[in-house]
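To whoever picks this up:

The parser on our side crashed when reading a file containing two proteins. I've narrowed it down to the boundary between the first structure block and the second sequence. Both blocks are reproduced below exactly, byte for byte. First block:
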Amino acid sequence: IERSALQNATVQLNGAIESFVQCWFLNLCLSKLETGKDLDRKERELLAKFNPAKNRRNPNLGTLVNEYKVLRELLETIPPFQKHPQTKKEVHRAESPDRSARSEISYRQNYRNLLVHANGHCSPEFAARYGVYHEYKRSLSPRIPKLESLRPLPINENMFKTQAACFYRVVSVLRDELLKESQSAGREPGIFLRGHRLAPGPRGDGGQHTRSPPMLIEGDHEASFRWTLDAGFREKIAKKKGWRHLR
């Protein structure tokens, strides 16, 4: 029962970080447009992949990390933990790209795929690709079980804790990057159009039941804003454009 619970939690947490990064990317692009900046070629290409009328699935976490240089380079600087597991001191920069949040995310996405599609067993390919990184994890936390090809994937509370700690660090850094972008046009300090749950108002404590605003707000691109509110408008545009499906 404990293993099943940890497997389910691991899969759910991977889904959460993927959704967060997708939303972060979209909000970052919105913030750039709001502050009068142009999107680069890769940003425009990735945004096109989010078009719900042309694509049934959004670009996944691996696609965003591999194709968006800004995100990839940020992740390569983030350590895969908040505090060093041995010294207990806060670490602000990864030792190397191979021992960074990018490595942990790649490891976890493929680990998740084996949990879902391979009955939780370690494939030879996974062992060959991530064996060195897994041993690095074990050097920091010896209670993490060994990784063995064609055997059940190692999983225990320590494994889950290291995943959660890394993802928390990633979310914190990416949030701060988005907030900096939101203020880059010289707005009054503390005022953001997006980037926190009280946007477009001042950042602060709005209470535990405060809901995040929609991604598109009044004053954004008119047709895009209307698309989020008006089903008839969506059907009309889809028919005009020849789009076969809508999500």
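<<boundary where parser fails>>
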Amino acid sequence: TEGWAAVAAAVWSGNDNPERAYVSVLNPTTRTWTPAHQVDIGAASLGRYTRTIEVAITGDGVVHAVWGMSDPDFADNDPPGRVWAAESRDYGETWSTPQAIGDSCRRVDDVAATSDGWLVVALICDNGPERVQPAIATRNPQGEWTLERLPGAVWYFSEGAVALADDGGATRATVAFLTGPNGAMVV
């Protein structure tokens, strides 16, 4: 809405190296893109078999990146899959230390931001062996995260989307997930 953007990409390594998550931001003052910065560092590394990252910009100009990571060897769930978040307050030049915002979640399907600093993230999380369920992570303007797992089951590769709308002065989030390869949807 203010004429600048951020983009994210998960890079598949094609070998035994971990995947990597990068973000580039358009500086609205210089009208140039930052070099792509890797945000999934240290314990927040994507690992193998997970390639999901999303970005959103809140009204205060903070760029937020949220990504899911998986166990690097994908065999023993140690460390468990997690969802991580980092932010940049200088148009992507530097990034905060990644913060874990949810355990046993590997896929980030979408993220939306409000002008007053809220984030809503659609996630796919583990629900026991060989089962997954949808979840929503929410960040308030003070930077506190909450995670709510939703009832029901979805397919591991289910896509999802978040839409935000004004509802009489309050912001309402609608999150939709495809429940499986047959295309049914849960909202």
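After patching the parser it read the second block fine. The mean pLDDT is 86. The CA atoms of residues 2 and 58 lie 11 Å apart.
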